[in-house]
Write a structure and sequence with these properties.
- With 111 residues, the protein is mostly helical.
- The protein is built from 6 helices and 2 strands; from the N terminus they run ααααββαα.
- It has a two-stranded antiparallel ribbon with strand order 1-2.
- A hairpin with a 2-residue loop joins strand 1 and strand 2.
- The longest helix has 17 residues.
- It is globular and about 30 Å long.
- The relative contact order is 0.19.
């Protein structure tokens, strides 16, 4: 999974949130909150096909409040994942899931 290109996952995130009536701008805001990537940074990550490992290694600024992301993704509690990279990937999945389920941005962004 770590070698999977971010470009392979991002379109699925877009489809998921749009199918649920959310805007791609909301997805961008959630990903920016988590990683510090702005719109241009996300576009670059998609264009250069960086892996998920590289995506998180190059993240401009991981949010200091990531410890507030709690819950279950794929049957695993994100706060209990021991591998740091896998935890970052699952944080991203969790936030996108919350967005697709219709949670308010304020709640998703832990503010």
């Amino acid at each position: 999974m770590f070698g999977t290109p971010f470009a392979a996952i991002y379109p699925h995130y877009v489809t998921k949130v749009e199918r649920k009536g959310r805007d791609v701008a909301d997805l961008g805001e959630v990903l920016e909150w988590l990683t510090g990537y702005d719109e241009a940074g996300l576009a670059a990550a998609v264009a250069d096909e960086r892996t998920l490992a590289e995506f998180f290694e190059r993240a401009p600024a991981m949010n200091p409040n990531t410890a507030l992301i709690r819950g279950v993704v794929c049957g695993v509690r994100v706060e209990e994942i021991e591998d740091p990279l896998m935890q970052q990937i699952r944080w991203m999945d969790k936030l996108v899931d919350e967005l697709a389920r219709g949670k308010k941005l304020q709640s998703i962004l832990r503010s």
